[in-house]
Specification:
mainly alpha; two-stranded antiparallel sheet; 2 strands; transmembrane; heme; Cytochrome_c_Oxidase_Subunit
Length: about 300
């Protein structure tokens, strides 16, 4: 008895990979499908048998039905052929003599074929399009003409250009910065210098609280990369704040390029030298190694 109960509990959990998961439903659907298939086959067989009997008992009905089917097929064919000929402007061969023009040359006769419907439709549609285009773009001003579209696209391109340049400008860092030979960055950096740097370095870079920026003595290096790094991170021990918290990388690049223009300008009342001397800047053919060599020689002399 216990064995039978266990089998009854295990039967519903049978895993079926196909079908609904219920064995009884699957059997039912299979039987229904087979019955419908059998009915379809039987209907086809009965139809064929009835037609065979009709041919034997009433052959004139079959012939009439066949004739009517052939006429319907021919009518459909003639309809589509006529529609095609009309669309293409073609005439039946029987009407060729009616289309011959009176004159001929060297035995060649010309037919007065009408203009195809598709050509006329294309021509009139272009005329209609031209009128509608004129009204929309030139008379009522609903749409933009090509000049207005050009101006709109150029304005959009200029906006995208400025956004790209602004994004590119902020990609400056102490490793990628170089001297701007055009002078545009330095020109922009002059105002930044006047606003933020004059209090410590003087209006002409002669120095004050901060070191002299117009001589060849630099505490933290006098190349463009060194200046950018100093401005960006500041010198907290000497009271110079990190300007990266206030200025963008583009603005730091501009003020760094302006400081480069202060080299050897010999302003009035310069502050005394601080740091090692740079004999030759990179722009003069020098290098960081020459600066280091100058520093070593100064230390040796002292």
């Amino acid at each position: 008895m216990n064995f039978i109960v266990l089998l009854a509990d295990a039967a519903p959990s049978t895993d079926m990979t196909l079908g609904t998961g219920n064995m009884y439903n699957d059997i039912f659907y299979l039987v229904v499908f087979l019955v419908l298939l059998a009915v379809l086959i039987a209907a086809i067989a009965i139809n064929r048998a009835l037609r065979s009997m009709l041919k034997v008992t009433m052959p004139e009905v079959v012939k009439e039905e066949t004739r009517l089917a052939a006429e319907r097929k021919a009518a459909r064919k003639n309809y589509w052929r006529g529609a095609w000929n009309y669309f293409m402007g073609l005439k039946p061969m029987e009407q060729e003599k009616e289309l011959v023009i009176d004159h001929e040359y060297d035995g060649i006769q010309e037919l007065n074929n009408p203009i195809p419907v598709w050509f006329n439709a294309l021509f009139y549609s272009t005329c209609l399009f031209a009128v509608v285009y004129l009204l929309i773009y030139q008379v009522f001003g609903i749409g933009l003409n090509q000049d207005q579209e050009y101006e709109q696209e150029m304005a959009k391109a200029e906006t995208e250009k400025q956004a790209f340049l602004a994004q590119s400008a902020n990609l400056f860092d102490e490793n990628s910065i170089t001297i701007d030979e055009t002078g545009m960055l330095a020109a922009n950096g002059k105002a930044i210098f006047a606003t933020n740097c004059v209090a410590c370095h003087g209006g002409a870079g002669e120095g004050g609280i901060g070191p002299n920026l117009a001589d060849r003595f630099w505490i933290h290096g006098g190349e463009i990369k060194d200046i950018f790094k100093t401005v960006k991170y500041g010198v907290p021990d000497k009271g110079m704040v990190p300007w990266e918290q206030t200025l963008t990388p583009a603005q730091i690049a501009e003020v760094s390029n302006y400081i480069i223009t202060l080299r050897d300008t010999k302003p009035a009342n310069p502050k005394g030298a601080e740091g090692p001397e740079v004999v030759k800047y990179e722009s003069e053919g020098g290098s960081a190694s020459s600066e280091a060599a100058a520093t070593d020689s100064t230390a040796t002399a002292n």
